[in-house]
Amino acid sequence: MKVLLVNGSSRENGCTFIALSEVARVLERDGIECEIFQLGKGPIRDCIGCGGCNRNACVFNDDCVNTLIQKAAESDGFVFGSPVYYAHPSGRLLSALDRAFYAGKPAFAHKPGFAVVSARRAGTTASLDAIQKHFTISEMPVVSSSYWTMVHGNTPTEVLQDAEGLQTMRNAAANLSWLLRCIEAGKKAGILPPQAETGNKTNFIR
Ligand SMILES: Cc1cc2nc3c(=O)[nH]c(=O)nc-3n(C[C@H](O)[C@H](O)[C@H](O)COP(=O)(O)O)c2cc1C
Questions:
Q1: Mutation probe of ligand 1 site: the residue of 7, 12, 85 with most atoms within 8 A of C-beta
Q2: Model confidence over 89-111: pLDDT tens digits?
Q3: In a domain? residue 54
Q4: CA-CA distance, 50 to 57, in Å (whole number)?
Q5: How many domains does the chain have?
Q6: Where are the beta strands (DSSP E) in 51-196?
Q7: Is 198 contained in some domain?
Q8: Is 15 touching ligand 1 by the criterion CB < 6 Å?
Q9: With a 6 A CB cut-off, is 121 part of the ligand 1 pocket?
């Protein structure tokens, strides 16, 4: 089993990375392979709504989004992390998620995950909400914790002092680990994900 942890901060070893690393430590303790995927510092295009998504790929091939979709297809669970910018997730994470989920929804469906955010002070729950909206329109089970999955700090050193934030990361990771093992046991017992009903797509006016 593998979990993909996406760092939506361009500060590759910053506060969000500390939170993701705490999650990874618990998952690895339980024998689950982890990869921290850095969105990095380079430009990431936003979705242009062209409808050209093809075979689980975005039309744009000049950034990391198609690699993200490929890695998602090979993963069993997800953690998406972001710093809070003006009370929302980083633009780079939102651009990557919009394109990856629009072009590559099957790579995420029926796989559990959660979001983590890092902030100096405020905007955390609004940011969690924005990230998790991608999960809840994509048939992903959302994993919870003992508190909302946030850490506080402006530097990695400050985040390491956020004892409750790190505890929340560990509890979320333990719940993800448990759910992944339940899903695997279910598959072995013949319990497979449901096939979603399709056919009705209305835009309120018809
Ligand atoms: C452009 C920008 C906007 C920010 N906006 C907020 C904010 O709205 N609320 C907040 O608490 N911190 C805000 N911060 C601080 C970061 O969220 C905080 O330092 C975070 O832990 C950085 O994570 P990172 O090291 O993983 O990038 C902002 C930082 C930047 C650069």
A1: 85
A2: 999 999 999 999 999 999 999 99
A3: yes
A4: 13
A5: 1
A6: 77-85, 88-89, 113-119, 150-152
A7: no
A8: yes
A9: yes
